[in-house]
Amino acid sequence: MPPPARCQLCLAAPAVLASDFSAVLSDILEQIEVACLRLPPEPTAHNLVQLAQARGTAVVIDGDVEIAAALGADGAHLNDLEKYSFARRQLGKDAIIGVYCGLSRDRAMRAGEAGADYVALGPDLDLVRWWAEIMVVPVLAELGEALERASEFAAAGAEFIAVGGRLWRDPAGALAAVRRLAALVA
After folding, report:
1. Which residue among 9, 15, 125, 164 sits deepest, i.e. has the most Cβ atoms within 10 Å of its Cβ?
2. pTM of this prediction?
3. What are the DSSP calls for the chain, one per residue?
């Protein structure tokens, strides 16, 4: 049996981007491996998409397929499974399309069956462990404000850990918070 895959970071940008977000993001991406950046549907975020992609970080746009296509993003992060077919048609077979499924096993299974590239689950350790043990579609654990629980979810089998919110408001700065997070999932 091959060893389990290493858990990777997915950074969820704040809904409203600060004026210095580009500089902060650049510092993070220069020093820490980030698998994916989730950006809000901001039509003027082309420079952020290019910045992340130039450093090998995939970019998905939160909830807006048209903006994802217009910005040249790698895909979309959907909150509504009903938009999956449209997203796949619009973005193509090679796009990354993930679906947030909350705490619903049924919704996660339906997203996986539909062809989602990953399912995003809420911060329920048993649910993430269950998914990782029996399903092949990668699971992204949405930790929200619970950064300190990252190692638990990585150990439970999450292929990706998504964080945002508190990360960008950390008193020591976002770079320091991402460093701590990366150490927890290493």
Report:
1. 9
2. 0.95
3. -PPPPPPEEEEE--SS--TTHHHHHHHHHHHS--SEEEE-S-TTTHHHHHHHHHTT-EEEEES-HHHHHHHT-SEEEES-GGGHHHHHHHH-TTSEEEEEEET-HHHHHHHHHHT-SEEEE-S-HHHHHHHHHH--S-EEEEEET-GGGHHHHHHTT-SEEEE-THHHH-TT-HHHHHHHHHHHH-
